[in-house]
Design a protein that fits this description.
The protein has about 120 residues and is of the alpha+beta class. It has one domain. The chain has five helices and four strands. The chain has a two-stranded antiparallel sheet with strand order 1-2. The protein has a two-stranded antiparallel ribbon with strand order 3-4. Strand 1 and strand 2 form a beta hairpin. The longest helix has 17 residues. It is globular, with a radius of gyration of 14 Å.
Length: about 120
C-alpha cells in the first residue's frame, strides 16, 4: 500500500499539515489565514472578498450536506454572477482545496473548454 506524503505550512506560528496534493489533513485547521496560504500554494495571489465568500459558503454547505455544492447554487447564494467559481478559481477543485475541504474520492472535475466544469465519477 502506498503512503501519502505530507508537508507542513507554518501560519502565524502554527504548523498546518497538508497532504502531498494540497488538501488539509485536518479541516478544523482552516481559517482565512490558512486559506490565503493555500491559495498562495496553488499559485493564486491574495484572495478577494468574493473568493472568500465562495470558500465560506462551500465550507458551510459541506458541513451540512457532506457533498460538493452545485456550482450554480454557489454563485446564486453568494450573489455573484453565473460561473463565479470558475471565474474566481479557474477549477472548482482548487476552490474546494483552498476551502480546506477533503478530497472527494471517486470524483474529479472535468472541463472540455477550460470554462465549464462538471463532476465525473472515476475509479
Amino acid at each position: 500500500m502506498g503512503r501519502c506524503t505530507m508537508s507542513t505550512l507554518e501560519i502565524q506560528g502554527k504548523k498546518i499539515r497538508v497532504e502531498a496534493n494540497g488538501y488539509l489533513v485536518d479541516q478544523n485547521d482552516w481559517n482565512e489565514e490558512v486559506a490565503m496560504a493555500l491559495a498562495e500554494q496553488e499559485g493564486m495571489g491574495v484572495l478577494s472578498v468574493e473568493q472568500m465568500d465562495i470558500l465560506r459558503f462551500m465550507r458551510v454547505y459541506f458541513v451540512k450536506y457532506r457533498v460538493f455544492p452545485l456550482l450554480n447554487n454557489v454563485c446564486r447564494i453568494t450573489h455573484q454572477p453565473k460561473q463565479c467559481v470558475t471565474r474566481q478559481f479557474i477549477n472548482p477543485e482548487k476552490a474546494w482545496k483552498i476551502a480546506g475541504l477533503p478530497k472527494q474520492d471517486g470524483v474529479r472535475f472535468v472541463s472540455m473548454d477550460g470554462e465549464h466544469f462538471f463532476m465525473e465519477p472515476y475509479c
